[in-house]
Design brief:
By secondary structure, the protein is mainly α. The chain is built from 22 helices and 2 strands. The protein has one domain: Sodium/glucose cotransporter (Up-down Bundle), CATH 1.20.1730. The radius of gyration is 24 Å and the shape is globular.
C-alpha cells in the first residue's frame, strides 16, 4: 500500500477514535466540562497530563532543534523537564487541595480580589494563545507533507477536529482523548527510533544506541562530529548556540514557565484527592521520560542521516540534484526544504558556509517527520509518525483552548460579570468561548511568528513572568496581598512583552567592552525567548515592594494559606 493511502488510513482511524471518545464522554455539567468530574484515576490522568504537556514542540520541533543546535539545543530538554518537576513538587498538590476549577479562580480566592482574577485571565490568555499558535504550526507542517494539502488546509482540518471533541467533551472528553493520543504519540516516536538505532548501531534501544559504535567501529556521536565538521559546521557535541548567561536564563525561563502553564495545572484538578494529584504527577513524569530520553538519540541520528544523504563528504562526488531521493522531492513540495544551485553544477552542496551552502532552507520542524523517510523505513512506519505528530499538536491545542475558554466563561463571566448565571448557561457560554478561542488561534496560526518550539518558548516566558510568581507567592507567602500580586503580574508580563516586541531595532543599552556586541538584545544580550525569567524577577520585586507599602492581608486569608499548606493523608 502506498504512503499516501496508509497515511490517510492511519490519520483517519485516529481521528475516528478521538470523535468516538467525544461522543462517549460528552460533558453534561460544568464540573465535568472543567475538571472531568474530579474522578480521573491517577495513572490515566498521568498519561493525559503527559500528552497535554508534550506538545508539537516536544514531538515535532524539539528533536529538530537538538539536531541542528547540538549541545546548545539541550536547553529545551533541561528546561521543560525541570519545570515539570517544579510543578509537581511546588504547585500541583497545593492547588488541588484548594479545589479550584481554574488558575484565575485560585488567584481570585487567594488574593481576595476580582481585579486579580481579571489580570490573571489576561495573562493566561496571552500566554495560551501564543502557545497554541505553535501547535497550529505543527498541525500545518504534518498535514502539508503527509496529506499533501496546503498548510492552510491542514490548519482548518485540525481546527475542526479539535473543535468537535473539545467543545463537546470539555475536560472529560479531552482527558480520555489525550490518553489515546499519548499512546499513539509514544508509539509513533519510539518505533522509528528503534528501527534507526538498530540500523546504525545494531542496538535497538535508542538511548543506548546514541553512545554505541557503528559498523565501522566509530562511535555514533564521533561519526556525527566528523561529518558536520567536514562540511564546515560546528562540532555537534560542543556546539553552544547560546552564551552561558543565555543558557542559564533560557533554562530557568522554560522551567518556571512550565510550572506556570495553566492548561497543565488544570489537569491536577481532575483527580479526587491531593494524594492522587501527587501520584498523577509521578506517573506523568514516567510517561514523559519515555519520549524525552529518546529525543537526543532521534536528533543525532536524524542529523547524521540527513547530512550523509544530502551531502556526502566521504565521497568524491556530491549528490546530483537530479538524483535526489523521493523524500527530498516530497518535502520540497511543502516549501519547508529548498535547494538553490549557486554554482550551476547540478550537485547539492550542503555546507556551513552561507555563501556556498545551497540548501537555503531546511526547516527544523521537519526533522522528526522526515527522519523515517530519510532512513528508508517502511511506509507504515512513516504513516504512524504522521499520526503521532498530529496527535501531539491536537492534544495540547485542546488543553490550551479549554484553559482559554474556561477563563472567559468561568472566571470572567461567572466570576466577575454574572455570578448568578445558571449552570446550563455557563456550559453553553463555555462552549461558545472555546469556539471563539479556536477561531482566534487558527487565525494567528496562519502566520506563525517562529518555528513551533520557538513560539512555544515565548509562551513559556510569558507564563513564567506572570502566572508562576503569583502562584508561588500565593502558596508560600502569608504576607503577599492583592495589591502586590496585581502589580507584580502586570509588571512581569509587561516588561516581557516590551522586550519581545522591541528587541528588533530598538536598543536601550549600547554594547560595552565587557558585555560585547549585544545587538538587538538590549538587556545583557539575553534573547527574547529567554526573557521570561527576568520578567519573573521583576514580578517578584515589584510585588514585594508594593506589598510593603500597602495593607496587610485579612486574617481569613492567612488561615486559608495555612490550610492549603498543611499535609493531608488522602
Amino acid at each position: 500500500m502506498d504512503l499516501q493511502t496508509l497515511t490517510v488510513l492511519f490519520v483517519g482511524i485516529t481521528f475516528a477514535i478521538y470523535i468516538g471518545i467525544a461522543f462517549w464522554t460528552r460533558a453534561g455539567s460544568t464540573h465535568e466540562f472543567y475538571v472531568a468530574g474530579g474522578g480521573i484515576h491517577p495513572i490515566a490522568n498521568g498519561m493525559a497530563t503527559a500528552a497535554d504537556w508534550m506538545s508539537a514542540a516536544s514531538f515535532i520541533s524539539m528533536a529538530g532543534l537538538i539536531a541542528f543546535y547540538g549541545y546548545g539545543g539541550s536547553v529545551f530538554l533541561m528546561g521543560w523537564t525541570g519545570g515539570y518537576v517544579l510543578l509537581a513538587m511546588l504547585l500541583a498538590p497545593y492547588l488541588r487541595k484548594h479545589g479550584s476549577f481554574t488558575v484565575p479562580e485560585f488567584i481570585s480566592d487567594r488574593y481576595y480580589s476580582k481585579a486579580a482574577r481579571v489580570v490573571a485571565v489576561i495573562c493566561l490568555i496571552i500566554a495560551s494563545v501564543t502557545y497554541v499558535i505553535g501547535q497550529m504550526k505543527g498541525i500545518g507542517v504534518a498535514f502539508s507533507r503527509f496529506l499533501e494539502v496546503e498548510y492552510e488546509t491542514g490548519l482548518v482540518t485540525g481546527m475542526v477536529i479539535v473543535a468537535f471533541y473539545a467543545v463537546m467533551g470539555g475536560m472529560k472528553g479531552i482527558t480520555y482523548t489525550q490518553i489515546a493520543q499519548y499512546v499513539i504519540m509514544i508509539i509513533a516516536y519510539t518505533i522509528p527510533a528503534v528501527f534507526i538505532s538498530f540500523m546504525l548501531t545494531g542496538n535497538p534501544i535508542p538511548q543506548l544506541g546514541l553512545g554505541s559504535e557503528m559498523a565501522d567501529g566509530t562511535y555514533l556521536l564521533d561519526k556525527l562530529d566528523q561529518v558536520v565538521t567536514q562540511l564546515g559546521f560546528t562540532e555537534y557535541t560542543t556546539q553552544a548556540r547560546l552564551s552561558t548567561t543565555n543558557m542559564f536564563v533560557y533554562t530557568l525561563s522554560l522551567m518556571i514557565g512550565t510550572a506556570g502553564l495553566p492548561h497543565v495545572i488544570m489537569r491536577f484538578f481532575t483527580v479526587s484527592s491531593v494524594k492522587a494529584a501527587r501520584e498523577s504527577a509521578g506517573w506523568a513524569l514516567v510517561f514523559i521520560a519515555l519520549l524525552y530520553t529518546t529525543a537526543p538519540a532521534v536528533a543525532a541520528m536524524a542529523r547524521l542521516n540527513l547530512m550523509q544523504t544530502i551531502d556526502q563528504p566521504t565521497q568524491a562526488q556530491n549528490l546530483a540534484y537530479a538524483d535526489r531521493p523521493t523524500w527530498f522531492k516530497n518535502w520540497e513540495k511543502t516549501g519547508l526544504l529548498k535547494f538553490e544551485d549557486k554554482n550551476n553544477d547540478g550537485l547539492i552542496q550542503y555546507t556551513g558556509d552561507k555563501k556556498t551552502n545551497e540548501m537555503v532552507k531546511v526547516d527544523k520542524d521537519i526533522m522528526v517527520l522526515a527522519n523515517p523517510e530519510i532512513a528508508g523505513l517502511p511506509n507504515w512506519v512513516i504513516a504512524i509518525v504522521a499520526a503521532g505528530g498530529l496527535a501531539a499538536a491536537l492534544s495540547t491545542a485542546a488543553g490550551l483552548l479549554l484553559a482559554i475558554a474556561s477563563s472567559i466563561s468561568h472566571d470572567l463571566l461567572k466570576g466577575v460579570w454574572r455570578p448568578n448565571i445558571s449552570e446550563k448557561d455557563e456550559l453553553m457560554y463555555s462552549r461558545m468561548s472555546m469556539i471563539g478561542a479556536i477561531l482566534v488561534a487558527g487565525y494567528y496560526g496562519f502566520n506563525p511568528p517562529d518555528f513551533a518550539a520557538g513560539t512555544v518558548a515565548l509562551a513559556f516566558g510569558l507564563a513564567a513572568s506572570s502566572i508562576f510568581p503569583a502562584l508561588m507567592m500565593g502558596i508560600f507567602s502569608k504576607k503577599m496581598n492583592k495589591e502586590g500580586a496585581i502589580a507584580g503580574m502586570l509588571s512581569g508580563i509587561g516588561i516581557t512583552l516590551l522586550y519581545v516586541f522591541q528587541h528588533k531595532g530598538i536598543m536601550f543599552v549600547k554594547s560595552t567592552s565587557f558585555l560585547g556586541d549585544m545587538g538587538p538584545n538590549w538587556f545583557l544580550g539575553i534573547e527574547p525567548n529567554a526573557f521570561g525569567a527576568i520578567g519573573a524577577l521583576v514580578n517578584f520585586a515589584v510585588a514585594f515592594l508594593v506589598m510593603s507599602r500597602t495593607k496587610k492581608i485579612p486574617k481569613k486569608i492567612e488561615k486559608m494559606i495555612e490550610n492549603i499548606r498543611i499535609p493531608v493523608s488522602n
